[in-house]
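INSTRUCTION: Work out how this chain folds

Fields: amino acid sequence; protein backbone structure tokens

Chain under study, with its fold:
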Amino acid sequence: MTALSWLGAAGSWLFVVVFLLDGLTRPGYHPARHPVSALALGPRGWIQTTNFILCGLLITAGAAALPQALGGLPLPLAVAALGLALVASGAFRMDPMRGYPPGTPDEDPEHFSLTHRFHDWAGMVVFLLLPLTPLIAVFALASPSWMWASGIIAAATALCSGAFGQLWERDSPYTGVVQRATIILGLSWLGALFLHGAA
């Protein structure tokens, strides 16, 4: 099961590396404002779509190693659900909006497509599980240091996730910064958890 743990860690960290690099090099894309999901739009959209699906599958596969490594089912189930929600986020793209891809009107569309709504629902699951998964870990892990670290990550990602929702509604120029902070905190912790399970 160690190989599955390494796959889970790779999926957690690779997801972050890809969206950071792609966002910094994408013409017309502004990482401080635009969400990660917008990278799935435009001519290079296949990169982020693949990132969602591949890394989501790797995380889901890694979750299969956690019951044996750490004991219990709630934590692995939460991790698997997070991975599947990432896969769904890639399968259903958001609508063009807020100036991206270039040439798109700067405001939100009057009506959202069904695909966009599915993407939103998947995203809600992701941003619910980013703080909920480390919170579950507080009660599932035996190591005091891991319990404390997981509690801190749970609180930080909950605060960031809530702030992201508010900034998104206001179309703040810093929406992308806070969203990225939430994802980076949550998935960095998750990658480390997989390696902890493999140790």
Summary: The CA atoms of residues 75 and 136 lie 6 Å apart. The chain has a mean pLDDT of 95. The chain has one domain: 2-102+114-198. The radius of gyration is 17 Å.
